[in-house]
Automatic annotation (TrEMBL):
Keyword Ribonucleoprotein in annotation: no
This protein's record includes keyword Oxidoreductase: yes
Transmembrane segments: none
Protein name, per record: Aldehyde dehydrogenase family protein
Keyword annotations from UniProtKB, A to Z: Oxidoreductase
Residue span(s) of domain Aldehyde dehydrogenase: 4-442
InterPro entries: Ald_DH/histidinol_DH, Ald_DH_C, Ald_DH_N, Aldehyde_DH_dom
Length: 452
């Protein structure tokens, strides 16, 4: 038993929720050995049987959606209804990979008549899934399901900010799997680091901060593990002169304040054309002032968010709405709008990951597009415009994995865009994630006639 523990306090009022022991060094070693031993049999299991296990797990997950949503709410403060939607999204993701997995295949090659040539997909082996707190069930289900349905085994370490949610998710999924095919470890960054530096790990899939992603990439360069990294984002919203400023403000508020801005693809910086800047800011301020938000995940994160706001104000930004630290217990923070923001401010240059809408007024579409395309992150971006040529330019020129036109959220299921730059590497979700979780073996099978 580890001597270290993780204490979870309520984001609502700061009261203790529970305390859990972290995995010890021996726990990590035992988990790696156990999944490695379980790998050959699970890899030999027919794809249809692996898919059936995921279908059964999805059914169980739906049955326990209320329980998992409550745990998510208690640990992270997430709105209860949104947390339940996240659980159901996780169940849908299990079903998606249960359907896609048996269809994932290699291809035949045209070689000599006396031989058979094929490219055959095989599981990579031991997958370590390090998953986040902001949507813990949906994100975890995607990585875990894609790994399992292709014959890999998984060690899952949920974020230390939602250990009970992650543990119960592991129990729900594990009920339908052979022993040790999926092992969940409770732990902090040290536990994650011990998993990442192991030479007995074949894939490290991480959704979280850019800083941690860089450390994982460095460790994998030494061990040879494949990495799938969806890290920080600094997603821009570009607002053209020809759109309704009221509607644009609604879109901006949705993108910046949904889940308290704690979404990987939240709107992090706003570039609005000068012709509609005044009515846009007035509308956005009105929406922010009338918005009541649940708490942020914890006070440590709230300090980070408020630090970005204070830095912007000190450098000349104007507080349009919010931006003041609430008194009292918990980790609450108001919907905040800042104007007169400059590119060097952290609210525009870095990921705030909170309910902050920093606005920069631009003279024309060209300036807005150029500034929206700047920076080291490359996760997603949105453009609001009635101009088809501007929309075409935006999606072509923005160096990100996902571009949304006239909607800050949405998209068809199965999208698997690749993050770029500091935002990570590798496909996330969609059929392409199955490719990431497998490796290819080329087979040349000569016949006896070929030998003669």
């Amino acid at each position: 038993m580890s001597a270290r523990t993780i204490e979870i306090r309520s984001p609502e009022d700061g009261t203790p929720v529970w305390e859990l022991p972290t995995a010890s060094d021996k726990d990590v070693l035992d988990a790696r050995e156990a999944v490695r031993k379980a790998l050959p049999e699970w890899a030999r299991t027919p794809a249809a049987e692996r898919a059936a296990a995921l279908h059964a797990a999805a059914s169980s997950l739906r049955e326990r959606a209320d329980e998992l949503a409550r745990l998510n709410h208690e640990e992270t403060g997430r709105d209860l209804a949104e947390a339940r939607e996240g659980v159901l999204a996780g169940a849908a993701t299990l079903v998606q990979y249960a359907e896609l997995g048996p269809l994932h295949r290699g291809r035949s090659l045209l070689g000599a008549h006396e031989a058979v040539d094929m490219m055959v997909p095989e599981p990579r082996g031991v997958v370590v899934a390090l998953t986040p707190w902001n949507d813990p069930v949906a994100v975890s289900c995607g990585l875990i399901a894609a790994a399992l349905v292709t014959g890999n085994v998984v060690i899952h370490k949920p974020s230390e900010r939602c250990p009970r949610t992650g543990s119960v998710l592991g129990e729900v999924l594990g009920e339908h799997l052979p022993p040790n095919v999926l092992i969940t470890l409770v732990g902090d960054g040290e536990v994650g680091a011990r998993l990442a530096i192991s030479s007995d790990v074949d894939v490290i899939a991480h959704v979280g901060s850019t800083a941690t992603g860089r450390e994982i990439a460095g460790a994998a360069a030494r061990t040879g593990a494949k990495t799938l990294l969806e890290n920080g984002g600094n997603d821009p919203l570009l607002i053209d002169s020809d759109v309704d400023p009221e509607w644009a403000a609604e879109q901006a508020a949705l993108g910046a304040f949904a889940n308290c801005g704690q979404i990987c693809t939240s709107v992090e910086r706003i570039y609005v054309h000068q012709d509609i800047a005044r009515p846009f800011l007035a509308a956005l301020s009105r929406i922010a002032t009338g918005t009541t938000l649940p708490p942020l995940v914890d006070r440590r994160h709230r300090d980070h968010v408020h630090g970005h706001v204070l830095e912007a104000l000190a450098r000349g930004a104007e507080r349009v709405a919010g931006g003041e630290m609430p008194s009292g217990p918990g980790a609450h923070y108001p919907a905040t709008v800042l104007s007169d923001c400059d590119p060097g401010m952290a609210v525009l240059a870095e990921e705030t990951f909170g309910p902050v809408a920093p606005v920069r007024v631009v003279r024309d579409f060209e300036q807005g597009l150029a500034e929206a395309a700047s920076g080291r992150y490359g996760l997603a971006a949105t453009v609001l415009t009635d101009s088809s040529s501007h929309a075409q330019r935006a999606w072509r020129e923005l160096p990100v994995g996902t571009v949304k036109v006239n909607a800050v959220f949405g998209g068809a299921p199965g999208g698997a865009a690749q993050p770029r730059g500091a935002s990570g590497t590798g496909y996330g979700y969609g059929p392409e994630l199955l490719d990431e979780m497998t490796t290819t073996k080329v087979l040349h099978l000569a016949t006896a006639e070929g030998r003669r």
